[in-house]
Amino acid sequence: xxxxxxxxxxILLVDDEERILRTLTMLLRMQxxxxxxxDGNEALKIMAKEKINVxxxxxxxxxxVGTELLKQAKYISPNTVRILLTGYADADxxxxxxxxxxxxxxxxxxxxxxxxxxxxxDAVSIAAKLETVNVPSFPVPVPAxxxxxxxxxxxxxxxxxxxxLLGDKQQVLWRTTIASALAVLASQKVAVLVTELQLAxxxxxxxxxxxxxxxxxxxxxxxxxxxxxxxxxxxxxQAQVYRYLPKPxxxxxxxxxxxxxxxxxxxxxxxxxxxxxxxxxxxxxAQEKVVSSKMIDYLARxxxxxxxxAKPALA
Length: 315
What we know:
- It is built from eleven helices and twelve strands.
- By secondary structure, it is an alpha/beta fold.
- Strands 2-1-3-4-5 form a five-stranded parallel β-sheet, with helices on both faces.
- Helix 4 (91-99) packs parallel to helix 9 (229-239) and helix 7 crosses helix 11 (286-304).
- The longest helix is centred in the C-terminal third of the chain and has 20 residues, at 251-270.
């Protein structure tokens, strides 16, 4: 009887600094088959030839920035889990990593060895789950109907624009506070949340993170004038936000984002196995944990009361 050799999961490392490549390789080579290159174009060639489970790319490289590499990697190898590594507070790169690369994690240099190992282990686990399903390189736009989009913003123009773009195909609800949004979420299934970060009753960041834990297939589009790298990174790692759009509102960009987000949501419903691949980090912030716990308890109480009757516009 022939013995079959189980291949190690494969990791592709991309960084223009040889020193960092050596350090990462030494850290990961015992558990994984490691490919390494300083050239983004070479990395794409490797991905086209080899089965790569996880790609970890630096951002600032002279030949190709990391966000562009991960954007192209998404089409070449959609089952490959993408991680961006950076040593700079680059808000634009953070936004591109969400909107173009659709990355799994955003890691700041210098990283902790345990943090990196744990992140890679999670990514490899997700890649293994993705192997069991046929994941297209990007969601194909479909004429989905009957979904609910919740707009959480004090600016009525945002609600009116979303309602205009979605027309009568989807139900569009409007709320201006976190408390009223939770009431909607407790009463009906929401597919897409379009939200500002700063609201009258607080910062919506904790809400977004909490909802991803409670409703894994809920997709969030952040639409805000806040462009803080640390906050964007936290929303990637702890909430897997699907799009992050800057204000002032750009109708064309919002239209494309809504289309791709609705398509992705339908893909999650058509291929339920994809939901298994959604894993977020839990915030270590003590205050956030308290607020999140209160939100979860509030949702539970609303559900227990059979809270309902959400209307299309704010009461």
